[in-house]
Fold:
Amino acid sequence: MNYKYIAVDVDGTLLDDHDNFDHQRLAQDIEFLGQVGITFIIASGNSVDALHSLFGDDLVNNFVAENGGRIIFNGREILGHPHNRSVISNLFDFANQLPHVDLMSASGSSQTYIPREFSAVPVPFYPHHAYFDQLDQVREQIYNVNFSWHQQRLAQDKINAIVERINQQFPEVNATYSGAYGIDILPRGVNKAAGLQSFVKNNGGSLAEVVALGDTSNDIEMVQAAGLGIAMANATTDLKQVADRITAADNDHDGALKEIEQLFKLV
Structure:
């Protein structure tokens, strides 16, 4: 197959467990890929704001952000799928029925919004954020709601049970395990595969021309739909079960970049 796109997840895939990546090596790989006509895409549950802060303005300009909720093509937003405001309010109320949540947040157009009750929780992964007392104080559109148990490290089977509970109780959303003890809650129908479909269609391509790499449950649709779906060596079992192949090295040993370089003969 003549692949024309490579879509790569961030946390647990491109980033190591200390949230670092080889900037120079990635820049070189993206340049080489461009020379042979392959478009590099970051496909992440992170917000556009967080991704711009991570990659700067010159390294990456194609994003399927918010797990497919916002699509950035050549630096320009071409599609967005925000939540209905009433759904967000109901989700925050529902959280009171769950095991104590360490952090709740909502990804807006320009920054992340956090209920003030969590103001003492460190949030280095949200470069720009604001606190609110009432949801109606947030004027921006919201694309993703996240519940996290990162401090208490809630067992994944318990988080998965909460995911199922949310999807049963809220038919208008798509909840998925996001990694790092969290749950991303998106509008129904929004996922990375749908986002990639919109991206490549805008460029005259198809998902069969996509190579996708990921590490956890919110990558399942993308890895299944891609022409070649690759799970990281450190991936969750559910993702490995649907992948076409698994990387030899994990995210702490540049597994994603090594796989890309070998696949496209960059080394």
Remarks:
- Residues 104 and 220 are 24 Å apart (CA to CA).
- The mean pLDDT is 93.
- The first strand starts at residue 5 and ends at 8.
- The domain at 85-187 is CATH 3.30.1240.10 (Hypothetical Protein, Haloacid Dehalogenase-like Hydrolase; Chain: A; domain 2).
